[in-house]
Design brief:
mainly alpha, transmembrane helix, membrane, 75% helix, Methylamine_util_MauE, 0% strand, 174 residues
């Protein structure tokens, strides 16, 4: 449960920080929501604030020991909503950039859906482990191992577009 908690908290902290690090970053996030066509232009700013608020709730819930299970549930609900939004946009042929973690110019696509589904699985695993094991003590070595694995997971999620760029080639048509 510690690894799942650290991974999701880390992902959402970086996602939140990437959107609020400056006015330009927030404006780019709003522009990506507009480009997805999910809401009318006037509704995109409130939607952006709603995402920020939901991310903050997830981070705070996962940080406090008494609300960890709520944090897993909130993370899963947010991830499900974001995944549904990505799927709807992709089906309509929208190619908006992914502003999930800041300045990526990669358009949202199937890889982002898979990423979110993996994070949903992490949330479900953490929720199940927390419900079954409760506050059972963990060995310090296990905690360190879980935190290292979570850090690698966070880095992989946050840099997904860069990793995909390393392993895919784009050939321009002639």
């Amino acid at each position: 449960m510690i690894g799942c908690r650290a991974l999701l908290a880390g992902v959402f902290v970086i996602a939140l920080a990437g959107k609020v690090r400056g006015r330009a970053a927030f404006d780019e996030f709003v522009a990506s929501i507009v480009a997805l066509g999910m809401f009318p232009r006037a509704g995109s700013v409130p939607a952006a604030y709603a995402v920020l608020g939901a991310e903050a709730v997830v981070v705070l819930s996962l940080a406090l020991p008494s609300t960890v299970l709520l944090g897993f549930a909130a993370a899963m609900m947010l991830l499900a909503a974001l995944t549904a939004g990505i799927l709807a946009a992709v089906r309509r042929g929208r190619r908006a950039p992914c502003r999930c973690f800041g300045a990526s110019a990669a358009p949202l696509g199937r890889a982002h859906v898979v990423r979110n589904l993996v994070l949903l699985l992490v949330g479900g695993t953490g929720l199940t482990a927390g419900a079954v094991a409760g506050d059972a003590g963990a060995h310090p070595a296990g905690i360190v191992l879980a935190l290292v694995a979570a850090a690698v997971g966070v880095l992989s999620v946050v840099r997904l577009d860069d990793l995909l760029g390393l392993f895919t080639t784009s050939v321009s048509p002639r």
